Amino acid sequence: MSHLRERIEKNCLNCGTTVIGKYCHVCGQENIEPKESVWHLISHFFSDITHFDGKFFTSIKDLILKPGFLSKEYMKGKRASYFNPIRMYLFTSFIFFLSFFSFFYNTSKEPVVKLMYDGKTMEEIQQMSPQDFNNFTSVLNNGKPMRRENFSHYIDSINKKKGLNLIIFNKEYKNREEYDSLVRTGKVKQNWLTKKLAHKEIELNKKYHDDANQFIKDLGEAFLHSFPQLLFVSLPFAAFLLELLYIRQKKFYYVGHAVFTMHFYIFLFIAQLVVLIISRIVELTQLTWLGYLNAAIIIAIFFYLYQAMRNFYEQGRGKTILKYGIFLFAYLLGIIFLVAIFFFVSIFKI
């Protein structure tokens, strides 16, 4: 419900119907003054996303503290009291990946050596006192100080760039024109797919000829940015595995398994966000003991899935453990397959 003032006029601004009461009985629009402040606009946006009437927070609390409970309530038809699982999934995944790429993922393009120099030139480093030089080089060399005459060689070995020279699908060709000419003359026989791969291979060799490290970095970033799509694709696959595992229980249908999977993914997003926050705190404060808390959270994720399966599907401990193990193994194989596909697609994005 909006906090804006109710209109004196009783005609609905949306459909023109005469309004009886606070809301239009035809289209449901609230009969309030159309002029609103920026704060009203922002608060209305978040209200529409999360229904900040207690439903969102109640759903999150029950999802975290009662594994499988929300999914069971959904199957019973009790849906008005809880946040819609699809909207909850979209909202939590949006918050997670927005936070990850905004605050936790370092996209700095600065050279590694420049960061290691800590703003100092080679000349300044060589002029350090013996004690300062030992302390500085110990950080770079796993606690072991270097000799001054060896330091420049060490830096040169790091700065040395290796050009990219992919020879995966075809022999090494100088350019695309040479390759296409050989294909046209029949000296190289290729189908449509291998031709596309060869073209991309030649393009990458040309683009990253002087810097293979940049190729690896760009490929990694392209793959990482496709991770939200990978998780989204893996969701129906996980639901399908659960459908097979519980195929004899006729009261469960595919949508029910999908809702269960969405609720688990939502918990996964929340848990991983907490892990990232703790990791950043450790990085800033050097409170390494907090790392044990992260380990506990990761273990809790696996236990949460087991407990959610037992509560939702209502089977005994033995059957649940067996199906839990089969599910994890099959899901891991599926994820490896999806990662390979998305990694392959990422090559064509750079």
Detailed description of the structure:
By secondary structure, the protein is mostly helical. It has three domains: about 190 residues, no CATH class; about 50 residues, no CATH class; about 45 residues. Helix 3 packs antiparallel against helix 13, helix 11 crosses helix 15 and helix 14 packs across helix 15. The longest helix has about 30 residues.
Number of helices: 15
H/E element order: HHHHHHHHHHHHHHH
What would you call the shape?
A: extended
Helix content: 55-70%
Which value, in Å, is the CA radius of gyration?
29 Å
Largest sheet: none
Which stretches of 5+ consecutive residues score pLDDT under 50? 109-116
Class by alpha and beta content: mainly alpha
Q: In the residues, how many domains can be counted?
A: 3
| Total strands | 0
Mean pLDDT: 81
Distance between the termini: 47 Å
What percent of residues are in strands? Answer: under 5%
What are the key terms here?
350 residues, mainly alpha, 15 helices, 0% strand
Summarize the structure.
By secondary structure, the chain is mostly helical. The protein is built from 15 helices and no strands.
Tell me the layout of helices and strands.
Elements: H1 38-50, H2 55-65, H3 69-76, H4 85-104, H5 112-117, H6 122-126, H7 130-140, H8 148-159, H9 176-184, H10 192-207, H11 212-225, H12 227-245, H13 254-285, H14 290-313, H15 317-347
